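Hi R.,

As promised, here are both runs. First protein below:
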Amino acid sequence: MWFNNRSAVRSYGCDNYLIEESFMCKLFIGASPDLWEATTRSLRIDGMVTSVRLESYFWCVLEEIAARDSLTLPEMLSRLYSESIEAGHNLGNFTSFLRVCAMRYLGLQMSGDIPIQPEISIASLDADNILQNEAQRNVLNGWSLLASSGPIV
């Protein structure tokens, strides 16, 4: 296979003929590799020191979320952990939970449920209403597994 600016050309079979294919994912593979470089950070959660390894992009999103409520990243992560445990969640994979938090934050911004303006704190938003809207969208989109979990009240 060889590449040019917008496509890949692959060699197939004994006849060695060429078929040009466009890069469907150029938007994603053209991004800076720094975004998916994983880094490990040490945190103190409930008095215990732990390490979390995430890609740089997720760290940036989580820092943005924390800054909206004037929290440091360790403060926000500790709150997320504590409040999740209090709500009865099993956080056996805290790193996955943080990735989902970051993706949901971006998705909720895209849907208009979380304002893009960083000066509007997350704590000031109507979480129950946002969760209800999200659950309704999940039903409309046919995401039955996501819709069935519904909002936590």
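And here is the second one, sequence first, then its structure tokens:
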Amino acid sequence: MSKYEHIEDAWVKEALEEYKDKIDGNKSHALDVSSYKIEKPWGHEIIWSHCEEFTGKILVINSGCRLSRQYHKIKEETILVLSGTLKLELGNPSDEKNTNFKCIDLQKGQSFHITPGLIHRFSAEYGEVELAEVSTSYLEDVVRIEDDYNREK
């Protein structure tokens, strides 16, 4: 049985089978085609791709919930709104009191790039939101400033 048997798209399965020796034998081109769901207090995320260079996720933020106000020391991420309206809160990294924030609403199809050091928070204030996120693979690089769920800062 093929390790790619669970893939429904015949073209993708055929391509993976054809190149499996190159994919499996070369760590720099390793491909993880499995995905997994991680429950979060604000909803969940599905990691659909993870390799040395980048990670792809789908984030589902439940209506009325928000993620922590946070920044990353080295992680970069770009988000794309797949459904709903995302309230994106942005803070000035030089504002030591963390009191001056700008809020923008991102609609379906709009994207935003988050650079290291930029304080940000995602919120589903207007209803459930679904985002695609592609980031560098520093998944533990989260510095929480404020969190509604009392998670470790």
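A quick note on the second one: The radius of gyration is 18 Å. Let me know what you think.

Best,
J.
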